[in-house]
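Before the break, one more example. Copy the sequence into your notebook; we will annotate it together after we see the structure.
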Amino acid sequence: MSSKLELCNTGDVAVGTALKVEKDGLTLAVFNVDGEFYVLDDQCTHGPGSLSEGYIEGDVVECNFHNGQFNIRTGEVVMPPCMIPMKTYPTSVENGKVVIEV
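Here is what the structure looks like once it is written out:
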């Protein structure tokens, strides 16, 4: 059974940016793409890079470690050297808060 986890206020993540959130043993990257919120694991599947510290263009984030790219909306690999998709979380906004299901 899934449970909801409140991560941050929507105002904490400006459009086109990301925020690293550590909560309940998870390290997550919260992205704001054109006013829609998406949450992925923060650590790149290819190495120790932090996606919340990566370069964001549209709905693609480039890891700051080896420059691999992921689709923020789906977690799918856009450009190698990354090969394994990122884990994504069902995300919603409730009362001005970004909430995921875990």
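The first strand starts at residue 4 and ends at 9. Residues 67 and 93 are 30 Å apart (CA to CA). Try to locate both features in your own notes.
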